[in-house]
Structure formats: C-alpha cells, structure tokens
Amino acid sequence: MMNQILIAGFGGQGVLFAGKFLAYKGLIEGKQVSWLPSYGPEMRGGTANCSVIVGDEPIGSPIVNAPNTLIAMNLPSLQKYENAVVPGGLILVDSSLIAEKVSRTDVKVCYVPATKLANDSGFSTLANMILIGKLLKESEDMSFDHTEDALKKVIPARKMNLLDVNLKALETGFGFTE
Amino acid sequence: MSEKVLMKGNEAIAEAAIRAGCRHYFGYPITPQTEVAAYMAKRMPKIGGCFLQAESEIAAINMVYGVAGAGKRVMTSSSSPGISLKSEGLSYLAGSDLPAFVVNVQRGGPGLGGIQPSQSDYFQATKGGGHGDYKMIVLAPASVQEMASLTIKGFDLADKYRMTAMILADGTMGQMMEPVELGDVEVKEYDKSWAVTGTKCARPHNIVNSLSLVPEELEQLNFARYERYKAVEENEVMYESYLMDDAEICVVAFGISARVSKNAINEARKNGIKVGMIRPITLWPFPKAPLLAAAEHCHTFLSVEMNMGQMIEDIELAIRCKRPVQLVNRVGGMIPSPEQVLQAIEEADKGGKAS
Amino acid sequence: MIVFQKPKSLCDVPLHYCPGCTHGIIHRLVAEAIDELGIEGDTIGVAPVGCAVMAYNYFNCDMVEAAHGRAPAVATGIKRADPSKIVFSYQGDGDLASIGTAETVHSATRNENITVIFVNNAIYGMTGGQMAPTTLPGQVTQTSPYGRDVKQCGYPVKISEMLSQLEGPEYIERVAVNNVKNVRAAKKAIKKAFQNQIDGKGFSLIEVISSCPTNWGMSPEKALGWLEENMIPYYPLGVYKDRSAGKEAEAK
User: CA-CA 20 to 30 A from B159: which of B4, B225, B231, B325?
Assistant: First the structure.
C-alpha cells in the first residue's frame, strides 16, 4: 500500500497542518511517511499545497505528482490537480467553497460542505480537519484509530486546548454523509 | 532508545549539529533554509550556545572563521546566492586549514534565480567556488535522517581533516518532513593545539593565517594540504548501491534526484529492465571506483541531476568515457518526474539492446 | 638600570614598515597597553589586509589573519567562542572604512565587546598609494592623479563621527601620532579601549590619524607636518562617544 495524498487550498486554510496530522498518524501506526509543503511567499491567501505519502514500503520521491487522494479546498486547486488523480482515486471537495462538480468519472468524489459544517459547529477554522475526517472514513487504508495521539503530536503545546475541537472536527467529517 | 519524530530536513540539521557539539551558529536569512536559523535562535540561548544573525553572509562566514580559529565547532547555513557570498570565506578557511561546517540548501540560479529546489551548485561545491586550490568535503543527503546523520559525520570529518565539510541539500530536502531518529552523539575530541586560545605566556603564539609570500613555502603548504585531501579520497568515499549486481543500466543521482530515480528504477525493474543506481553520498570525494567497476557491466549511464549537466562530467571522468553517459535533467526549480527518468531508462534499454 | 625596552607583547623581530611610518608607534602603543594591563596571555589579535597584514608576526599574543575588511566579524567569532579572552582588531582605512564598512558598523551597533584600532593615513599603502575612503578632497594619489574630485568620487568617510551616532558602541575616540603630546594621548585612549573590554563595557574604537611618507611622497618629518595641517582639521581629534562617562556624539 502506498497512499499518495495531495492537500491543496489557500494559505491559512490549514493545508500543512492537515498533512502533518496524516503523517504523524502514519508514523504512530508504524508506516513509512513523508510530508512535503509547497513553500514560498504565500503564507496567507496564496495557494498552498502539501504532499503526504503514507505507505508500507520505503518512500522514493516525496513529491506527489499522481495522487490517490486529492483534497481540494478551493477551486483553483481542484482545477489544477483534478486530472492528476490516478484512475480509481479519491477526490474530496469542500463544496461550501467550490460550486463546480468534478468532471472525471473514473474517480470517487465526495462533496463535503466542510467550511459550512465548521462554521455551524463553532470551529470555523477547522474545515481542513472535517475533510480529513471524511478521508479517514473513505480511504480503505485508513481508520479513526490513533487520531488523538496524532493530534497531540501536531498541536503545539501552548495550543493543546484546541485538542477537543480538532477531535470533534475529525468526528464531524468521519460521520458526514451526503 | 530514541523515539522517531517527524522533522523538517532543515530542523534535523540544526538539532544534529547541536548534538554534535556545535554551540556557535552564524547566518543571514534566505529561503529555503531559514528553519535552520530559526531552530538555532530558539535553542542556542537555552544551552549556553551562541546564535547570531550576522549583517551579511560575508560577515557570517568570517564569524565562523573566528570561532573555528579559536578551536570550537561552528557552522553557518545558507542557500545558493548566499553561498556565493560566503565563497571568499570558504577559501580563507581552506587556506588557514580550519575545520568548519557549512550547509547549502540549494535553490535555482544563477543570480537571484528562484526559491525552488535545485542542484545547480554542484560545481561550486565540488570544484571550489572560492579562489585557489582547495577542496571541501561535500555531503549529499537524500533523506531527513541523512540530513541529521551526515551533519554529525560532517563535523567529525571537518575536525579530522581540518577542512570545511558542506551539506549540499536542496529546497525539497530542507522543507520535507520524514521520521528521524536522533540518538545521543559521542562528540570526539580532536587535537586543536593550533587554535588561538591565548598563550597564557606559556607557549609561542599561535597564528591562524592563509598568507604566505614565499612561493616555495606556499607551494609546500599546498602539497601538504593535498596530501590530506588524498587521505580523504582514500578513506571517506560514501555511496549507496541500489540493485547494481546485475544492472545493465546505471543511474547516477544524488539527493532528491536519487529519490525520484528510485521510483523509476522500481517501475523499470517490474518491466524486466536491469537497471540500478549508484547514489553518491559524498560528492567530493566522488565515488569513482564503484562507477568504474559498474562500467564493466553497464552499457549506459544516466546522470539524473537538477542542473544543466554538472555531475555528468565527473561520471565521464570516473568511467574514463568507456560508456555513454546521458543527462536526464530539469532546472530552474523544476524536479524530474519518475516518468521522465523511466522514459530515459527505457530508451537506454532499447539502445543497449540494439547495439 | 633599564630605561627603555621593547614591550613583551611585541615579538623580537624587525618590522617591515617603511622608514618614518607610524605603524611602528601604534604597534608599540598597543603592546604597551597589553603589557600594562597584564593580558598578553589571554589576548587574541586580528590582523587586516593592508600594510599591517603581517602584524601577526609582530604581536606576541595569539593572532589571526582575516580576509580584507572582515576583521571585526572574525573578532566577533573569536570573542563569542570564548568571552573571557581579550580580542582586538588592527585595521587600516581601506580595510575598515571601505571594504569592511558593514562589518565595522554592525560590530559597533551590536556593542561587540572587542577593541578596534583603526589606523587612518588617508591612503592605500600596501598596494602602492591609491585613493582611500579617507583620502582628503583634492589629495593626489595614484588613482586620484588630479586630486580627489568630490563630484566624481564623493567625500571622505568620517568613521568616528559616523559610529558615534549609533546607540551601540561604548567608546569612540580619534587620536593622532604626529607629536609626543598626541602619542601620549593616543596611548591613554588605546589603554582605555582595552580596559573597557576587560570591564565588559563593549565596543571601543580608537581612530589613529597617522602618516604615510612613502605614498604621500614626503619626508617623514614633512609628512607629520602635512598630517597636522591637513588631516587633523578634517578629522578633529577627541572623544566622540564615551557612554560610561555620559558622553554622546560631540567632538572637542
């Protein structure tokens, strides 16, 4: 198994954090992992993406060119990466921010109104983790196990009060049905 | 005993340096290596070390020169344009036979270039960069774990041979996170009786110096330095050999290019193509012997690098032009894809079968 | 009874400086200060590129030869490596005020606890008399053969005035070595600059106005006269900054 995940959106949407969570979860589960951010003058508002690979074999290139899983958190990201997804892959779309539908028919698509769900639940900055929760549900190689341990690794110590809402966001996504 | 943690390559270098006994860091901000400085700024004050943001790359490397002259482990880090500025200091460090540790997290060039990953400072690192006859030990990590382990190794080699050890990484290696295990490091002690530590009025004064106006003497200094370099070439070559036993095609790649190439090699092997890889871990000293040996059974060599063809010249020299060496490259911040490398392997395979 | 001898902190070797050059005097003043403060065994000097490039052969303490202009950065490294050591740089005008201006300004603004001896003779000596950053307006040199044209190449750099505007440095004084009175004052200033470092007060720079008979094309005696008549009016002597004494920028 080699799960190649690409998470893409605007800077400030928690793209890198979501990726780190998946990488740490994989590490705790004894998997091979890598995490690679796009970098540059795009701290907030610009485009940001990160490549996460979780697998059983040693990881060659850490760059995800052909993802099994694409999480698109804005329209430019969907447009840019939709065609890169391997056939049979999975695309998660934040349908609160992206009105367009995926045109591919050879991939599985989940439309999750993550931003709306996050706002409604009182954790408006955690649309990213709602989408990750949905990924844990939909991916054959993933489960809800070790989420709390992984969160404890990625949330900075001084922000550990946010552990519960992160868990709730993951649960919200995990339990969401269209 | 130590736990695996996820770290960025840049952070792994910084933490490994501290564990290797480095307590002095001087740098100047430049993308994509700022995490090294940020990490040092946070940690050094807590462990009685010195982090200083210098006014320029030039000042930073000369502060390194000062600490090295005083006999302590010291480092600086930068990215391509900054290394050009440091090149003067690198030459002086070599001329004064001082041990130093320098990190170059490369970006695309020349000039201001870009900020995306590159390997276009290969010549600068392996052939000198600054003026005069000199060498640096050049280490090319291909994982975050190696960013750490080669840092520790680099400090040792620098002290052992009284020369600069440089990590030649790229933006990808610096920015990516991977699990890394950082154990305790045994910091070896080296004789530094040459250092300026104050005479205590008990010995003749020590002089750290690269000036020698008598040609006969300067010649001897160069000869002596190259004797040391010879010992480095004999003892310190490091490389990884991947699926080379029955290989008919040899990919040569370092750093991120080697990671990408591995994907392509695995894919080609599935299709029955006998391809392997020699991954230089030390770019200087270059692994000449294993490459020459590979020329006995490989009909083609592929040099996969993120520049316009720099390492390819060292491969050709190492195999004495016995076999064709083809360049597989992307530049300017672009990274070769596994598909590009695979295609080159497949073409080499067809060419090999035809001849 | 010995009435005169070489300071312990100077090596017993002949200096290479030209006849009448004031570097010998300044070397001696630095060495006397080191001797009198009893710090020879803990002092590390940094030599420049310029006429004083071989100062490492003359001072008896541990010495480092720096790249051109980088002496304050090298001194910073040495001092940070072991703050208990006394670290000084000895630099000329090209080294300190041209190619090494950034290192000078920033070591001063950091109040780096080092001592800088700045020898200003308004010319590049070692390379054979080219225009220096401190060459006076109208002064003839090899590269200003018609006299320094300020419209073409600007005005001399006044280091003591410049640095005294910074919050950072502890002590900035300009002295001269053209007569006995001034030499004595220079000695006092240099000793104070080392004492400041011993006391942990920070960055002290002593600018020493000196002569270059060879490249000025004058006899040593005439050169000292030219210094007094031309350089001192342009570069007024005095304490420009002495933080501990409550003295901020102000020339005598």
Answer: B4
CA torsion, ordered C126, C127, C132, C133, to nearest 10 deg: -90
| Chain B residues lying within 8 Å of A55, measured CB to CB | none
- What pLDDT does B11 receive? 97
Residues A169/A148, Cβ–Cβ less than 8 Å: no
d(CA C56, CA B209): 8
Q: What sign does the dihedral C209-C213-C216-C221 (CA atoms) show? A: positive
Chains B and A touch (3+ CB pairs under 8 A): yes
8-state DSSP, A83: G
What is the distance in angstroms between the Cα of C67 and the nearest Cα belonging to chain B? 7
Task: Please tell me which residue of chain B has the smallest CA distance to C67.
Answer: B92
Closest-approach residue (CA) in chain B for C105: B55
pLDDT band at residue C251 under the 50/70/90 scheme: very low
CATH code linked to domain B4-194+209-235: 3.40.50.970
- Which architecture does CATH list for B240-354? 3-Layer(aba) Sandwich (3.40)
Q: How far apart are CA B129 and CA B210, in angstroms?
A: 17
> Using beta carbons and an 8 Å cutoff, which residues of A are at the interface with B?
20, 23-24, 27, 33-37, 39-40, 59-63, 65, 153
Nearest by CB to residue B172, choosing from A20, A27, A62, is A62
**Which residues on neighbouring strands pair with residue C204, listed in sequence order?**
C115, C171
Binary contact (A39, B175; C-beta < 8 A): yes
Of A20, A32, A39, A149, which to mutate for an interface test with B (greatest number of B Cβ within 10 Å)? A39
Tokens representing residue B338 in the block:
């596994």
Sketch out chain C's domains with CATH numbers: 23-245 (3.40.50.970)
Sort out which chain C residues have CB atoms less than 8 A from B199's CB and list them.
40-41, 60-62
Determine, for residues A60 and B259 on separate chains, whether the beta-carbon distance falls below 8 Å. Answer: yes
Give the alpha-carbon dihedral of B222, B228, B231, B236, to 10 degrees.
-110
Residues B155-207 have pLDDT tens digits of 999 999 999 999 999 999 999 999 999 988 999 999 999 999 999 999 999 99
* Chain A, chain B: beta-carbon pairs less than 8 Å apart: 59
For residue C193, give the amino acid letter.
Answer: A
CB contact under 8 A, C77 and B56: no
State the Cα–Cα distance between residues C194 and C205, nearest whole angstrom.
10
Report helix, strand or coil for A176. Answer: coil
pLDDT in tens, chain A (178 residues): 799 999 999 888 999 999 999 999 999 999 999 999 987 655 455 678 999 999 999 999 999 999 999 999 999 999 999 999 999 999 999 999 999 999 999 999 999 999 999 999 999 999 999 999 999 999 988 999 999 999 999 999 999 999 999 999 999 999 999 8
Question: Which residue's structure tokens are 């392996």?
Answer: B126
Q: Dump pLDDT digits (tens) for C2-12.
A: 888 899 999 99
Does B285 sit behind a cis peptide bond, omega within 30 degrees of 0 on the bond before it? yes
Please say if the pLDDT value at position C240 is more than 70. Answer: yes
Domain assignments of chain B as residue spans, ordered by start: 4-194+209-235, 240-354
Q: Smallest CA–CA separation between B33 and chain A, in Å?
A: 11
Grade residue C252 by pLDDT with cuts at 50, 70 and 90: very low
Task: Note whether B35 and B174 are within 8 A (CB).
Answer: yes
Separation between Cα atoms, residue C78 and residue B64, nearest integer Å: 9
Chain B residue closest to C102 (CA)? Answer: B55
Cβ separation of B259 and A62 shorter than 8 Å? yes
The CB density around residue C83, as the number of other CB atoms within 10 Å, is 11
The residues, any chain, with a CB within 8 Å of residue C162's CB and separated by 6 or more, are C105
The residue written with tokens 């290192």 in the block is C103
**CATH superfamily of domain region A2-175:** Pyruvate-ferredoxin oxidoreductase, PFOR, domain III (3.40.920.10)
